[in-house]
């Protein structure tokens, strides 16, 4: 991989993500006087909303003219994620009680975009629109929508629990560490990493046991697990903190067992030896039992 060029889809996704992200310059271009909370004024102002809507419409029009068919589908998704990141960033710096939701918007859009970009770098042969993980599963979508609903309802009924700054910071740190660990795992495993668990061994598939794989057997799942709980801590969503913890723990317990059956089939004794030495990384998950 070293020295090789990023595939066309990857390059288009970067341009499109930045085009969406550039929405942050709109409030900077418009002079709203010397208000301290001028970004908040801008966000709530009708003209501000019209400017944002006009911006995204124009950018989408450009993408539609420049890119055709499958390339447009990549561009529009990356642009939407960049736009969400930009709106989240603007909200984060605004003088509003929605700051932590702004952090959440940034973390969610960054996660989905970086999954695509890193896949384009490490394993372009497996790259597809699914690499954005936007349509991961019905359960995943339901979990996301539930967290937005819980945040909104509690913000209306018990607004004080949404302002626990220290807790939001703990969540933010968990999100950043989890995200970092996941991306480190993807970059370490390289072309051996695939969003779809492989049941047939590719000729080039080798067992990775170095870097973060020397610390944990399933570092990308560890990262995802803590990152997803971190998003709910950041939003101070008590119901979803519990729900996300239980649901993701069950999901990864099953997933790790299934994956390890294939890995033992692929690498035999080498994987069994590796399994003896290195912990899965997830609490109370030991992986597939092997009789030796
Ligand atoms: C979504 S990746 C997850 C990798 C790993 N479970 C983790 O959490 O970092 C799934 C793919 O990685 C492959 N894989 C998992 N562990 C591996 C290892 N130590 N070396 C090489 N390939 C591995 C599996 O065969 C599967 O196709």
What brief labels describe this structure?
292 residues; mainly alpha; Four Helix Bundle (Hemerythrin (Met), subunit A); 2 domains; globular; binds S-adenosylmethionine; transmembrane; EC 2.1.1.100; ICMT_MeTrfase; PPMT_MeTrfase; transmembrane helix
Descriptive overview:
- With 292 residues, the chain is mainly α.
- It has helices at 8-21, 25-29, 38-44, 46-66, 69-93, 99-122, 138-157, 165-189, 219-234, 238-267, 269-277.
- It folds into two domains: 1-135, no CATH class; 136-292, Four Helix Bundle (Hemerythrin (Met), subunit A) (Up-down Bundle).
- 67% of the residues lie in helices and 0% in strands.
- Helix 1 packs parallel to helix 5.
- The model has no long low-confidence stretch (mean pLDDT 93).
- The structure holds S-adenosylmethionine.
- S-adenosylmethionine binds at residues 185, 189, 192-195, 197-198, 207-208, 213, 218-221, 259, 262-263.
Uncertain spans, ≥5 residues at pLDDT below 50?
A: none
* CATH uppermost class of the largest domain: Mainly Alpha
Percent of residues in β-strands: under 5%
- What is the N-to-C order of secondary-structure elements (H for helix, E for strand)? HHHHHHHHHHH
Counting helices, strands and paired strands, the structural category is mainly alpha
Number of helices: 11
The CATH architecture of the largest domain is Up-down Bundle
**β-strand number:** 0
Q: What is the overall silhouette?
A: globular
Tell me the helix content.
Answer: 55-70%
Q: Main sheet, how many strands, which sense, barrel? A: none
Gap from first CA to last CA: 38 Å
Mean pLDDT: 93
Tally of individual domains: 2
What's the CATH topology label of the largest domain?
A: Four Helix Bundle (Hemerythrin (Met), subunit A)
Radius of gyration: 21 Å
Bound molecules: S-adenosylmethionine
